[in-house]
Amino acid sequence: MAKHDFMTPKAVANRQKSKGLQRLRWYCQVCEKQCRDENGFKAHTSSDSHQRQMLIVASNPTKFIQGYSEQFERSFLENLRRSHTTKRVSAHVVYNEYIRDKNHVHMNATRWTTLSGFVQYLGKTGKCVVDETEKGWFIQYINNDPVAMARQEELKRKRQALLDHEERNRRFIQAQVKEAQAKFGQDDDEDKPAHQPRVEKVSMSLKLESKSKLASVESKKSIQSAFGQDVDDKSGKDGEPSSSFDHETSWKGGKRSAVDAIMEEETRKRQRRDEDDERANRLDHWIQPGLVVKVMDKDVGDGAYYKQKGLVVRVHDTYVAEVRMLESRDVLRLDQEDLETVIPLVRRPVRVVNGIGRGALATL
Questions:
Q1: Which residues form a coiled coil (predicted)?
Q2: Are both 24 and 65 inside the same structural domain?
Q3: pLDDT band at 121 (very low <50, low <70, confident <90, very high)
Q4: Which of 144, 162, 192 is the last residue of a domain?
Q5: Which end of the chain has fewer CB atoms surrounding its CB within 10 Å, N or C?
Q6: What Rg value do the Cα atoms of the chain yield, rounded?
């Protein structure tokens, strides 16, 4: 039978049909030939070229199957990494995206007969995080790239170095506070005996009976001049105790002002330290068991769980949460990027999920 010309309607129709994705069951991986129907596939399998290729494969079938399996796994994981990174997604969605390429390696040529078996293999080898739900198998890529792992290690070292620096600053400030307290404590102990004898002298001088008015006036003047008080004070005998009291009060006032200055400086340092602690304690993960969260990814369950609330039951690998939906009671494993915190009503309990006080309970 003669072939159709290039621009004949039959040839154009054949080219249009060949552009689309054909049935996978009528594809020969050995010859890399796509047949359009069952009759064409039977005709191809009975051809001489196909028989020669099958003889080559029959000489070492393990080698060919292993090669096709490695190509299929490598291409599948590459598509998962590029399209979905580390997000949790249905295995059927990833597979449908993979088979859009007409030149992809078909699963029929690999050692896996079903997609479920291939997904379980990825979970056992630690290349992906897999879980089975009522809607099928879900898969999440584990990024074992050396560059990404080195970046994570570098961030971890920087965070640890920042914490060590904050700890050293905290110890230094505590040592300064103790030194200042000890210093002012010693000054207090040294100053008290110096004033007490003077007070005793004043009291004794007041109790002594003067033989003449002149002697009593001179003694009062000498005592008052010693305490820096005006000679013409009208308080009489009560002037000396009041002068000693005023001096004692002014000395204590000076001591309090110095302590206040130190306390103000420590308060400013504490505020700066709290700000640094806030930045240091703010991590890139926040999900915790017992939190009420909201699903914000429309791709989860084809939008069936969009903006629905759930309770975090368990946390896996820091960033993946096992969430039980409050309405449908379904249990899902979701990445924290697909979730959002829920603000409770006023006077209801709330939990701090990041920064200073992380994990603490409070009332809104």
A1: none
A2: yes
A3: very high
A4: 144
A5: N
A6: 43
